[in-house]
């Protein structure tokens, strides 16, 4: 990859980058938020110094957006001042720092502040927490980086000793879409490819596979989404932190289930509790599950941008039995992973966009239709070992993703060492009491072990 910070150079936005920027409206911002909680106090000047020293290793963070919307590019910004990108936030109530409740309310306020497009599209607020702790509240535009790239940048910019790149096997709390190896001893297909029978069989298999993909990923009809409605510029946020060991133990109750399946089943249980508690029907919901298409970990690619797709499942919200919810989820995700639905989705979308720009815009609208999915639930693997920042242990890592027009709720999870934090971002009118939903999700996970 060329270095976009060299004078006279720049990098055109990818179709994915442009699509993300196009989702911004008067009510919707395009960034995500990462919250790094530290077990000690650090200053904004110390954080800025760390980032300044390491910024050359993540050159996209030293670019700004130019030429929007006609010919957008990530253009080097030689005048970028890290001290303006990293600022201190002081408590206004005379306390020594924010407690958990105050942190959530302040993050919600920071979330809605748009990043300045005349500068690099990221910002870190350094906030004191109660008990002599610190929070780094990092807003990062999604057009610059997806979740996996953000984790790599966090390791490069913040961690004292960057750990190895996070693994992405099914047991480490991430979704990937890579070819499934053949089972040992399985019969191999005949090698001859020059017969009419072979080509006819291949065409039939391809057609059947495509029909199956379309049946899974292009739902027809369905109940209206409970989160479909006009969204405001206000946000409510919440999160819960659960031991990874609990998720793994829950997954082991169902043969073939994974940590990711346990997360989805817990979200289904939390939604069931929240919906019924607010007088709404606990009906199954189409849920989009983002999938990383990044190269294998260890490739050395830090500045990787956006490289993800997704598949869709029907989240079994109607089921009251936690074990049955997990069994249904695991069955659906297994089919989609083996069929590589996320890669098919990505290939189909790219082909249609290349064929015709108008068709590409139609596809973008179709991809974001709330009848196709009610909400997205993502999961990102963070550091597998304990990490520190400026000598202080990272005691919590949270990610929050922005909602969209007619999609009033978004769920995003991230792991850090031995815990998984599940973050919820919502329009507070569409989804009031979002922390109640977060707590109910943790309770639904515990029910899986009862």
In short:
This protein is an alpha+beta fold and about 450 residues long. Helices cover about 35% and strands about 20% of the residues.
Would you write up a description of this structure?
This protein has 450 residues and is an alpha+beta fold. It has two domains: 11-165, Chloramphenicol Acetyltransferase (2-Layer Sandwich); 171-176 and 206-381 and 407-447, Nonribosomal peptide synthetase, condensation domain (Chloramphenicol Acetyltransferase, 2-Layer Sandwich), CATH 3.30.559.30. It has helices at residues 15-22, 44-54, 82-85, 100-111, 147-157, 196-217, 244-251, 259-277, 322-338, 341-355, 357-367, 434-447, and strands spanning 11-12, 31-38, 63-66, 73-76, 86-88, 122-129, 133-141, 236-243, 285-292, 308-315, 375-380, 388-389, 392-400, 409-416, 419-426. A six-stranded mixed sheet has the order 5-6-7-2-13-12, with helices on both faces. It has a six-stranded mixed sheet with strand order 8-15-14-11-9-10, with helices on both faces. The protein has a three-stranded antiparallel sheet with strand order 1-4-3, with no helix packed on it. The radius of gyration is 22 Å and the shape is globular. The N and C termini lie far apart (50 Å). Residues 1-8, 167-174 and 176-207 have low confidence and may be disordered.
